[in-house]
Amino acid sequence: MTRLQDELLRRQKQALISDELYPVKKLEDFFVVNDHEDGLDVSIWPRIRLFAVVLSIGAGSMFLVALDSVVDNLLPAAKPFLESVYGLPEDADIAWEWIVSSRIYGLAIGSLLSILVSNQPSRRAPLITAMALNFFGGSLSGLVTLINNGVVLCCFGRFLNGIGSGIIQVVGSAMIAEISPISARGTMLATLTVWACTGELTGMVLGLDTLLGTEILWNLALVAPSLAILPAILCIYWAPDSPRALLLNGDKEAAQKALEFYQYSDEWQSSLDDYMNDIGAGTTVEEKVKLVKQDNCNSKLWPMMCQRFSSGNFVRPFMLGAFILTFVHLDDWLWISYSTQVFENIGLTARAATRASLMISFPQAFISILALVIFDDFSRKVLIVIPTIMSIICSVLVIVGIKSGSLFGIWPLYIAVPALAAADLSAAAVSSESAYTVVPELFAQKDRVLGTAIIGILQNVLGGLLTTTALSIVNKYGTQFVLGPFLLMNMVYIIGIWRYLPETNGISATAIAMHFRSDLPSLRNSEIFRQVLSFLGFFYGRHKVLNVIVFVIQLTVILFCFYGVCIMFVTGFWFIFA
After folding, report:
1. For labelling, which of 54, 363, 402, 568 has a CA lying 20 to 30 Å from the CA of 471?
2. Residues 340, 75: contact at Cβ < 8 Å?
């Protein structure tokens, strides 16, 4: 059989399998029913151990969203200090924007650094190291009012904290996916969003003027959430490493013990089979591990990245995952970081605004926990699209209310805007849970850390740019000039999710990988574009020319964006050191 015949036969089998896995959806297909066999091990201890490690990973990463939300309520308390240092209120606002956004930029760098460990099988060691960096950075942030150049040190500490959180978010989500049984994988990954909502609420509470949100104690509020890292480090240190990591090190016995530590007796065998299928060809574990270690792409970073980005099996889920996670619920960047200022701008006092910011976080935390209970009973796609539609409605109503001075002439802004913000954040709780769950699920086991790391970079660079500029836009032009672009992007987001996202609930990583073709996405591989070329006639056969034109345009846009980011960094850091 020739190579061409072999490839055609493989594609035909893959298409048949894909059709069976991803049939045309009916309405009832969006409700997933999990069957459980009777008479099997029902001991509660494997689930308790699994939850303990999963919750520790969340406490060391996503719970530190508290460090983002606490700065929202701290602005009234911190502003006198910043004005005493920088003089003008406008300069104080810019300094505060950099304190807020420095952690977001750290998250992007942390995601970048996690690429360095993406081709290393161990998960536990990077997690413990990153958590220690998290705690150290959080401790430095508390020195902001105690020493000279404290604002600079605070920015640096929050930057280090962001680096640690970025590494944990990437490596931790990979470990959660590897230690969880397939039937509970979605629920375990969704706990990260529950931790984020809980952390946001905790930060809002700590920032109240009755606790740490005072002109004397506000620096301690920048440290307090980091204390949750200490018990998380101990729990992960005592737990076994990822079973897949142990299997790649050739220790099948330890891998099986780790699976038995985390999963029920009727679950770990299917997980082990999934790992074996992912590692590659071979008849025994020893042969498979030997093949993996001999592969140059599994020992060196650059060859591995070149190999991954030359295959559509990685590039296609990467592009889809980047779109899903980078643009999921953009309104979060406004409400989490600057809701207090938004509420002050519509007429609330500083004290009332901080309490309104706290109150809008309660429904989000409650709904995120409630959604966790029923998360695996619904389609991932539905849990992203419906809340995003709700977010669009909330944004429209906020914009209409601000433009008219009240909502429909009935509800004043000081009531309508906080209520709509609470509804918007509640929608974010559900859509974010699904987004943070589905992105790691899109990748094959060996690609998960690398893919989610680069996506994390893109998401946090965008978040850093938004938090660096949003406060100035809100104060100078109005909240509607921030929500308006978010609203339009949410519309595009819904269309993209409904059109391209496959179902991943209850499906193994090996089966999900079959959904993505091995050829790279390009104009030549687009059926719609080929039909357009055939219709135009003149351009038919000139795909390379058009690909070159598209590439030049994309490169120009990227260079302009890079130039703008560099100017922003130089200007911002010059301002802080000045």
Report:
1. 363
2. yes
